[in-house]
Specification:
6 helices; 8 strands; 200 residues; Aminopeptidase
Amino acid sequence: MAGEPMRIPDEIRTERLVIRPFRDADTAGYLEFMTDPRATRYLSVEPEQKTAAGARTLLDLVRGSYESDHPVWALAIEASPRGFVGSCGVAPVEDPVFECYYSLLPRYWGCGYATEAAVGLLGYLFEETAIREIRAYMGAENWRSAAVADRIGMRFLGVRAHPHFGKPGLLYVVTREQWQARARQAEERFEEEGKEEETV
């Protein structure tokens, strides 16, 4: 994978969501997100990027990168009929290890969208790319993100400094092998439940 661009997918579908590249229609929702202090409280971005002008520049940079040799893996989360509800993606830590993020507009907190999007994103990455390990770094008080990491099967490894930003926070990790084992277990449970229903 080293030196090779990781292609941005046209879309990743889950039961209720479509994870896809940003579009013009997402601009208003993205600007609302980036200028809401509740939404950006734990984001490692520059203060200027939390303004409408700075957020628009950042969104243009992300969208402009999609067809380049080094695309920014930041994707929109769409929920029909609501449209843009948040964003998720990954960034390299060290080949072949990446870190993931998932964030929603505050009015959609508590809907299960972050968990569903994270499962869809990580499932795609472990199935379709050479990524071997995915991490999630988060602030010690960011219990919402920690709860999502727990629910999707990531392992808590304690408080660690972020390798690029240096800020200490909670670290969750899952490897390709662990993710695939969890998926097999879920499939086996589903098959067993089906057999039990057939015998009732």
